[in-house]
Structures are given as structure tokens and as C-alpha cells.
Design a protein that fits this description.
Layout lengths: L1 H13 L4 H14 L4 H10 L4 H19 L18 E4 L5 E3 L11 H13 L11 H11 L13 H11 L3 E6 L5 H9 L4 H10 L1 E6 L3 H10 L6 E8 L2 E9 L6 H22 L14 H73 L11 E7 L5 E7 L4 H10 L10 E5 L4 E2 L15 E8 L2
Parallel strand pairs: 3-4, 7-11
Antiparallel strand pairs: 1-2, 3-5, 5-6, 7-8, 9-10, 9-11
Helix pairs in contact: 1-5, 2-3, 2-4, 3-4, 9-11, 11-12, 12-13
Length: 456
């Protein structure tokens, strides 16, 4: 047909197909009867160029399209634009008209409409309209509205194709739903979750990721199917036999941080093989030749986590050892300082003691000789010291009072070191402050009792 000729010619000019791809296209068109090559290529590329799987998805989508053409209620608040090249259906009661909402470069209906649709799809940029828009429209939005932002390899197709792809390749399915917006908030959310460099690497290596706009029919259907409430919505599911029997993680809070998202991805990667094996009774599907080795990825992830834990434990042990060493050094330093202080104090005490002894010896040498008790001028003087100790000595009555002071100093009493003291008679009280007076002049002959008192 004319539309096949226009679209086929355009596709063949822009894309060089491998021989096996041409064979799969031929098989797809033979099974489905669909002669539009671009439609065939879209279904085949979304299903790993497997014509049987692509034809099965195509049939399922045609059932959905049939329901859509009968006029299902659109998603809440959604008003799809009218495709100007769509075929007008039969008129219903009154003036209502039922329209098909198709991909803008998918002509249908009579030859004239097909020619117009083919020419329009060739001349006009690709646009998505109506209920059928899915992953393809989502990726187009990101590239148009957020140019330069790196993104994961989103699945191009519908949710059923993404589930089948995850089942076939034994990977967890990451589903992301949002409402299209050009606000900085949406870009910031994407950059800290799906589109951070670390997340892109983890997702491309270990997940099948499907993104969709909730304002499309496919987006609304996906939202209802997985039970999403808050948007943006991220969920990680296990796909088995084209079903989603288990949820690994769900993130539906705008305040999520990049670290929390990466932790959720890692947790899903680690739990996936265990839970998937339980769901399939231990008989996991073998991955296709072009799918990454899941066990190897998980093993490397576990090794990386273990290495990080070991590194952290090593650093903690090193910090503890350094702290203990530092503490011991500080204790040793403190002990050395205390020993030095004690040594200096002891040296000071010894120095003072030597000085005291030297002073005592000097005072003793300065004292006159002690007379015999039978000497006619002998005075026997008893002293009571501040410590309570009593001492006595003999002097001559011609000796001066200062001799008594010198004698007390020569005793080296600790209480009298470096202090002023006085000699006095207790009863009746009399102070001996005239150091130039003789003992006879102070009536200390032949015997006397003298008290030593410390002056305040």
C-alpha cells in the first residue's frame, strides 16, 4: 500500500538493518498482518527483536486500542488532543464524533488519509498524542525539556513489554511514574535519584527501567496497575512469567536523598536473586546471550560492600590504635612532668635543708664556748620552743642577749625558719628585746626560763 511505501522508504533510507532484523520484520508482519514497518520495528526493538514475543505484545495492544476506540473514560483530568490525521469513526447520537488517537506517524484508514499521514510523519517532528503514548513519549519529553541531562536506558514501549523484558532477562523492573513538568523541582528530583551518575551505572547494569507520564493512557493504566498514590513514584518489582508478584522497594517521597536511593537500589540488587528463586521454586530462567551475568553483578556488588565494610573496620581500628597510642604518650608525658616537678621540689627542699644546716653550723660557730657548771659566772638558761620542745644551755652572765637569739637560730627548728621570733619571760611577763644587754643586766643569772614566741 501507499502508506507502506512511504514509511518503508523513509525507514530504509535512515536505518540500515541487519539481515536477521529484516527476517524478524518479515515474520512479524506475517503473524500480525501489520504492514507498517515502523510499527513492526518499534515492537521488535522493544522485545529484543523476537518476532513471536513482539507479535504477542502487538496483539495485546490491539485489544487495548480496540477498547480505546470504543470510548473508555480517560484518566482523571486528562483531555487528549485530537489527531488531525486520525480517521473519523461513525457518528453516534447527536453531534458526538468518536476519534482514534494514534501515533502521529502511524497512518490508518483509507489511502488518502494514509498518504497524508505518511507525508506528515515524514515532514513533521515526532509527536505523541492520545492514550497510546508510553515509554517512547517519556524519553522524548526528557530529551526535549531537560537537554544535556544524562539518563538511564529507559525501556521504549509499554508496561507489558517492560515486564516481559524483565522476566526474560532475569532483572528487577524499576518503574518510574511522574506528571510532566518543566519546573526546576522535577529536574532536581531526577538528578538526585534516577539520573545521578552512580544511579545510572547501577540501573543500566542491573535493572530494566520503565518511565511513563501519568497524563497518558499508558501512564494512568500503569499507575492503577501497580497501585501508585503519590507522584513522583518509584517502585522496584520482581517480574516472573510476565507478572509482578513481589515488590522489592517503593519510594514515593519527594524528599528522598541520593544516598537513600542508591541504598534502595543496592538492597533490591542483593535481595532480587534470593526472592526470585523462591518465587520460581529455585528454577530461574536462563538469561539470554545479550543479557548481563546477574550472579556476577551481585557477587561484585557484595564484594564491594564487604570491601567497604572491611575498610571501615580497618579505619576504625586504626583510629582506636592511634587514640590509645596518643593517650599513652600523653600519660607518659604527664608522668614525666610530675616526676620532674617532684624532683625539682625535692631538690628545693634539700637545698633549703642544706642552707639551714649551713646556717645552723654558722650560728653554732659564732656561739661562745659553753662554760662549766662550776664557773662562778655560769648562767643556766632553759628554753621552751614553739613546737613545745624544751632545751637548755649554759652561758656566762657577761654574754649578751643576742647570744641567746643566735643559740635558738642554731637549733634549726622548722617552725622558726625564715620567721621573726622573740624571747620572753612568762611570769611575770618580760620581753628580752635589748639584744645588746648582758644576761646579768636582764636578771638571767644564775638560772632562768625563757619562752620562744613567733612574732605575727
Amino acid at each position: 500500500t501507499w502508506d507502506y511505501y512511504i514509511l518503508g522508504k523513509r525507514i530504509m533510507e535512515k536505518k540500515k538493518l541487519e539481515e536477521y532484523q529484516e527476517i524478524e520484520i518479515a515474520n512479524f508482519t506475517a503473524i500480525t498482518g501489520e504492514q507498517n514497518i515502523e510499527i513492526a520495528m518499534r515492537y521488535l526493538s522493544a522485545n529484543g527483536w523476537d518476532s513471536s514475543v513482539a507479535a504477542s505484545e502487538y496483539s495485546s495492544e490491539m485489544e487495548v486500542a480496540k477498547i480505546a476506540n470504543e470510548g473508555p473514560p480517560p484518566p482523571p483530568g486528562f483531555t487528549p488532543p485530537r489527531n488531525p490525521f486520525a480517521t473519523q469513526g461513525p457518528a453516534s447520537s447527536g453531534s458526538e464524533v468518536n476519534y482514534q488517537y494514534l501515533h502521529a506517524d502511524e497512518p490508518s484508514g483509507n489511502i488518502l488519509t494514509s498518504i497524508i499521514g505518511g507525508i506528515a510523519s515524514f515532514l513533521l517532528p515526532k509527536k505523541w498524542v492520545g492514550y497510546e503514548a508510553g515509554g517512547e513519549e517519556f524519553v522524548y519529553f526528557l530529551r526535549e525539556k531537560f537537554p544535556g541531562m544524562k539518563t538511564p536506558n529507559f525501556f521504549i514501549g509499554k508496561i507489558v513489554g517492560a515486564i516481559h523484558e524483565a522476566s526474560l532477562k532475569n532483572r528487577p523492573l524499576l518503574i518510574y511514574i511522574h506528571k510532566h513538568s518543566e519546573s526546576p523541582g522535577l529536574r532536581a528530583y531526577l538528578e538526585k535519584t534516577l539520573c545521578s551518575p552512580e544511579a545510572i551505572e547501577m540501573i543500566n547494569s542491573n535493572f530494566i527501567i520503565f518511565g511513563v507520564n501519568v497524563d497518558t493512557y499508558e501512564g494512568a493504566r500503569t499507575k492503577n496497575f501497580i497501585g501508585a498514590v503519590n507522584l513522583p513514584y518509584i517502585t522496584m518489582r520482581i517480574a516472573v512469567n510476565d507478572l509482578l508478584p513481589h515488590t522489592l522497594n517503593t519510594l514515593d517521597e519527594v524528599s528522598i536523598t541520593k544516598e537513600q536511593f542508591l541504598a534502595a537500589l543496592t538492597d533490591a540488587m542483593i535481595n532480587y536473586p534470593v526472592i526470585q528463586s523462591q518465587l520460581t521454586g529455585g528454577s530461574r530462567m536462563l538469561p539470554t546471550s545479550h543479557s548481563p551475568p546477574r550472579r556476577e553483578v551481585i557477587r561484585k556488588t557484595e564484594e564491594q560492600v564487604l570491601k567497604e565494610i572491611q575498610e571501615q573496620e580497618y579505619q576504625e581500628a586504626k583510629m582506636k590504635d592511634d587514640f590509645v597510642k596518643k593517650q599513652k604518650m600523653e600519660e607518659q608525658k604527664k608522668k614525666t612532668e610530675e616526676e620532674d616537678k617532684e624532683r625539682k621540689e625535692q631538690e628545693q627542699i634539700e637545698k633549703k635543708e642544706k642552707e639551714r644546716q649551713a646556717q645552723k653550723e654558722k650560728k653554732l660557730l659564732s656561739l661562745p664556748a659553753e662554760p662549766e657548771p662550776s664557773h662562778p659566772n655560769c648562767c643556766e638558761i632553759a628554753f621552751r620552743l614553739p613546737s613545745g620542745r624544751r632545751v637548755s644551755r649554759r652561758f656566762l652572765k657577761t654574754n649578751k642577749v643576742e647570744t641567746l637569739y643566735a643559740y635558738v637560730e642554731s637549733l634549726g627548728e622548722e617552725d622558726l625558719q625564715g620567721v621573726a621570733f622573740e624571747l620572753s619571760q612568762p611570769m611575770p611577763r618580760k620581753q628580752y628585746s635589748k639584744k645588746d644587754a648582758t644576761l646579768g643586766e636582764e636578771n638571767l643569772f644564775p638560772k632562768a626560763f625563757v619562752q620562744v614566741g613567733i612574732l605575727e
